[in-house]
Write a structure and sequence with these properties.
single chain; Immunoglobulin-like; six-stranded mixed beta sheet; five-stranded antiparallel beta sheet; about 40% helix
Length: about 450
């Protein structure tokens, strides 16, 4: 009976929090893709004199979002973009037509990432808006997506042919709308632009399924409710922009350029692209959200993902990838040493130097992997350390850096663990020399 009551309470609490967050936003979002245009409609819970957008990195909406009813306008006022009636009267519904082209936004993901066949990814976070203004605690938007009969949309790990609704949170997600069918595997979904240069398509089609299978075999099934999605989009248009990134359960990269064939001449172009996907694929299986709570310990999951990317690509490309990995490691050690001259690694987040977590973390995990393999004659590796970290967290609730060091004790000598821990917490007098000493252990 207690269990049943607790379950009811948890569900009620979740509904209260979700509804409360949604109520603070106060608008429904309805995206409709017709054969001719992309339409976005906002319906307000109560009449309002303006609808304000959550994020305004630039004023692009004022020129690219066109109200269907000319009584409305999109303006920039008091450092934010908003929709209002020209006559100042209150309203509870407005519809706008969007321009589905790629736009580079500073420190934000592009609203659209077009595919060469006419489909596109649209970033739902760009659509988030509130009545009057978005308060700090407004974090829940009801989204409905509807498409015409000959297309579909991909959202929340599913292919949808009918209209669907959900609550969007935080940074939102990318939703694909178009006609291209994805690679739909039990463990992931991938959509690779059909017009990408042949060599990229071949490598991605060959490597992405193997990446997911590799990490699942080493770290177990991912615990996400939503199937991981991998998107690669391309538009052969004047420009030189590449944008890649991560949203919950999504990895994506967009090439918006007319010189991609030229870029392919660089020997590091393909390895760099595969590395990014390998790094993010590793995150799907780490369970890092429950293991790493504090930003100051980001070297744990980011550094681990960097080194796991190296191990995955070494598995698939043993004859060609080693110089690339060696170069990445040298860059990591140099970058780590440079960052630690100014402050301890634990303080990197305070200084906005998140790259140090990737670099120092990669070095730490690579060293631990080497030592675990050496002492066990190949029986154990960094995968065993991480799996022990996950299992220990489930058993005891111990996570973060201290939990990781504890989980590593069966595999790594205590003197090395002490020195590695010092690298993450202390102000090191000569970081480059200290890194060299660690390598000699």
């Amino acid at each position: 009976m207690r269990t049943a009551c607790l379950s009811v309470f948890i569900v009620a609490l979740y509904l209260y929090i979700s509804t409360n967050a949604f109520a603070k936003a106060g608008v429904n979002i309805h995206l409709n893709k017709t054969s001719d245009e992309w339409l976005i409609a906002y319906s307000a819970n109560t009449p309002t004199q303006k609808i304000a957008f959550l994020s305004t990195p630039i004023e692009a909406r004022t020129t690219r979002w066109r109200p269907v009813n000319t009584a409305f306008e999109v303006v920039f006022e008091d450092h934010q973009e908003l929709i209002r009636r020209k006559d100042g009267l209150a309203f509870d519904y407005v519809q706008l037509s969007l321009t589905p082209t790629y736009t580079h936004l500073p420190k934000a993901y592009a609203p659209f990432a077009p595919f060469s066949d006419g489909g596109a990814l649209i970033h739902t976070g760009r659509l988030f808006a509130c009545l009057d203004f978005c308060s700090d605690d407004a974090n829940g938007w009801k989204i409905t997506v509807e498409v015409e009969e000959n297309s579909h949309f991909i959202a929340n790990g599913k292919i949808n042919y009918q209209a669907a609704s959900w609550l969007g949170y935080n940074d939102g997600q990318y939703v694909y709308i178009g006609e291209q069918m994805p690679i739909d595997e039990p463990a992931f979904m991938a959509l690779i632009d059909t017009e990408l240069p042949h060599v990229i398509k071949v490598e991605l089609n060959h490597t992405l399924p193997k990446l997911m299978a590799f990490f699942e075999s080493k770290l177990g099934q991912h615990n996400n409710d939503v199937k991981p999605m991998l998107f690669t989009s391309y538009l052969n248009a004047p420009g030189t922009d590449i944008q890649g990134g991560v949203l919950p359960n999504q990895v994506f990269i967009h090439w918006d350029m007319d010189n991609l064939d030229e870029r392919l001449q660089s020997k590091n172009f393909i390895p760099t692209t595969l590395w990014m996907f390998a790094h993010e694929a590793a995150h799907f299986f780490q369970d890092s959200k429950s293991l790493v709570i504090n930003k100051s310990a980001s070297w744990l999951h980011e550094g681990n993902a960097e080194w796991l990317a190296a191990l995955a690509l070494r598995e698939f490309y043993p004859e060609t990838i080693e110089p690339f990995i060696e170069n990445k490691m040298n860059e990591a050690k140099k970058g780590c040493a440079k960052a630690l001259v100014s402050y301890p690694l634990i303080d990197a987040a305070k200084h906005g130097q998140y790259r140090a977590y990737y670099q120092c973390g990669m070095f730490i995990h690579s060293l631990m992997d080497l030592k675990a393999r050496e002492l066990s004659q190949g029986k154990y590796s960094i995968f065993h350390v991480w799996n022990n970290f996950k299992q220990q967290s489930l058993r005891t609730g111990t996570n973060g850096a201290e939990g990781f060091w504890s989980a590593a004790e069966p595999y790594i000598p205590s003197d090395m663990l002490k020195k590695l821990k010092r690298l993450t917490t202390d102000k090191i007098t000569s970081p480059a020399s200290y890194i060299e000493q660690l390598e000699s252990l």
